[in-house]
């Protein structure tokens, strides 16, 4: 009777699949922020390749030295076979009878984005790269952020400090710990080789930062006052040290949204007053009208003589997991 039952289940299963092709796609692979560029070597070494590098390896904003948006792995089409097709972020560029710049999703693996740019001439390829690059970069960035956030789920920090103090939740890996907690201020950090990665959270009144003409200077004053109060630098005799906004370069400021709430995004360089320390920061100032406040969350990295792009990308991914409870 048991044998008959098993055979019946198998018969029903295969009957349901009969006539339908079921595709089981492998998990995509690749380092975070790495882009596989598939194109003929002659094109890669010429003006088309120059345009690809100009757009997809442009310097990331707000870092202490130039680091590309994506690390590019070039390979000819003949190499793009087998497991190589499972790369998560791919850009395919070729001469063709079509003129297109489009995005394909989960073609060979999942999750996966394959940007396809074709043109009838090198001039047309360059024009299509120029026209489609921003959209492709945004799609790759979204995918890389989601992949980074997914990796956090392997081990999450379970501390409740952010919930208790601000009524928010961030998806923070367990390697981060709360280093300082005071009224209206929380500092979370983790050790990395030769430095630290840090997350700050605090609030300001809801009516703050409303003057467009002084917005940048007001943001700098806000950050510097927080640094003076909560983030001291090294103990130097007869000198006051604390984290402040780099004076030589104005930060980049963008109007954006975070979880459907109006927000200001700020990217720039921090330094320590009266001491040679510096690094990148990324701040979100989020409107929270239900509580008549603006919530400020910031990530910053201290890692001298080290590339910081991927550290800052991880912090951005954490900040963008915010939930208002």
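Q: What amino acid sequence fits the structure above?
A:
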């Amino acid at each position: 009777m048991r044998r008959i039952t098993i055979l019946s289940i198998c018969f029903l299963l295969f009957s349901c699949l009969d006539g339908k092709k079921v595709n089981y796609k492998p998990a995509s692979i690749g380092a975070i922020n790495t882009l596989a560029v598939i194109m003929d070597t002659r094109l890669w070494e010429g003006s088309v390749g120059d345009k690809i590098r100009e757009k997809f390896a442009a310097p990331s904003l707000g870092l202490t030295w130039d680091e590309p948006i994506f690390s590019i792995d070039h390979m000819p089409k003949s190499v793009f076979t087998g497991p190589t097709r499972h790369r998560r972020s791919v850009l395919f560029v070729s001469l063709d009878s079509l003129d297109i710049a489009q995005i394909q999703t989960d073609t060979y693996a999942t999750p996966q984005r394959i940007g396809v740019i074709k043109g009838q001439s090198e001039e047309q390829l360059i024009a299509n790269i120029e026209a489609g690059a921003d959209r492709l970069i945004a799609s790759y960035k979204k995918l890389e952020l989601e992949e980074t956030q997914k990796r956090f789920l392997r081990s999450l920090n379970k501390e409740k400090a952010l919930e208790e103090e601000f009524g928010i939740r961030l998806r923070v890996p367990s390697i981060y710990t709360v280093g300082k907690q005071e009224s209206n201020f929380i500092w979370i950090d983790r050790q990395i080789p030769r430095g630290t990665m840090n997350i700050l959270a605090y609030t300001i009144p809801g009516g703050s930062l409303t003057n467009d003409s002084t917005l940048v200077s007001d943001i700098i004053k806000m950050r510097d006052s927080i640094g003076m109060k909560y983030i001291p630098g090294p103990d130097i005799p007869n000198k006051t040290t604390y984290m402040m906004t780099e004076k030589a370069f104005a930060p980049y400021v963008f109007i954006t949204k975070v979880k459907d709430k109006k927000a200001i995004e700020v990217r720039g360089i921090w330094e320590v007053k009266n001491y040679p320390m510096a690094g990148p920061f990324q701040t979100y100032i989020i409107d929270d009208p239900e509580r008549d406040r603006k919530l400020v969350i910031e990530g910053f990295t201290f890692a001298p003589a080290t590339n910081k792009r991927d550290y800052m990308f991880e912090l951005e991914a954490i900040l963008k997991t915010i939930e208002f409870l």
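Q: And what stands out in the fold?
A: The first helix runs from residue 2 to 17.
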